[in-house]
Amino acid sequence: MAYWLFKTEPDTFSIDDLKALGSQGAFWEGVRNYQARNFLRDQVKLADLVFIYHSSCKVPAIVGIAKVIQQAQPDPFQFDIQSDYFDAKSTKENPRWYGVTLEYVKHLRPITLSAIKANLEITELALKKAGRLSIMPVSEREWHVLCPN
DNA sequence: GCCAACGTTGGC
DNA sequence: GCCAACGTTGGC
């Protein structure tokens, strides 16, 4: 089992929105970055655990945990000409973009970006560098540093 | 709202 | 295939 961190803008889709969907979970659509896509398509597996991180908001922070309940599927919005996520270069035979489905697990007391940056135990997490990656791996060790239970 | 960092696009 | 221009992300 692997660990991940997914970013979301809470004004668009927050952990509370995820919680409200209950056991049906939420399809994580709209990832349009190749590195993030590769993680989603190739490495994110059923039952992996995911930190939900709120970005572009007052206090950027890890706010809770979700789990993967369905592995990668083509993101249907890439075929929807009405959607902001439409991609004219993607075909059904060879889709470019994928998403997974997440189910809410629990809230955490927010682990703020400033606390993560200040934590000397955290050295690998891509969030620490000024990266803009929206899906990133978290090592098992660093997961447990951030979330001791 | 500003702007630095970085990914993507497109001309050559 | 290089790289400048451009667009987007996301912290502050």
Radius of gyration: 15 Å
User: End-to-end distance, in Å?
Assistant: 16 Å
**How large a portion of the residues is in β-strands, by DSSP E?**
25-35%
CATH class, please?
Answer: Alpha Beta
Question: Spans of 5+ residues with little confidence (pLDDT < 50)?
Answer: none
**Would you identify the CATH H-level superfamily?**
ph1033 like domains
Instruction: Give the CATH topology.
Output: ph1033 like fold
CATH architecture: Roll
Please, how many domains?
1
Q: Helix amount, in percent?
A: 10-25%
Shape: globular
Q: Would you write up a description of this structure?
A:
It is a single chain. This protein has 149 residues and is α+β, with helices and mostly antiparallel strands. It has one domain: ph1033 like fold. 19% of the residues lie in helices and 32% in strands. The protein contains four helices and six strands, in the order βαβαβββαβα. The protein has a six-stranded mixed sheet. The two termini are 16 Å apart. The protein binds a DNA duplex (12 and 12 nucleotides) through residues 7, 9, 33-35, 55-57, 60, 113, 130-132, 134. Residues 2-147 form the EVE domain. It comes from Pseudoalteromonas caenipelagi. InterPro entries: 5hmC_binding, EVE_domain, PUA-like_sf, THYN1-like_EVE. This is EVE domain-containing protein.
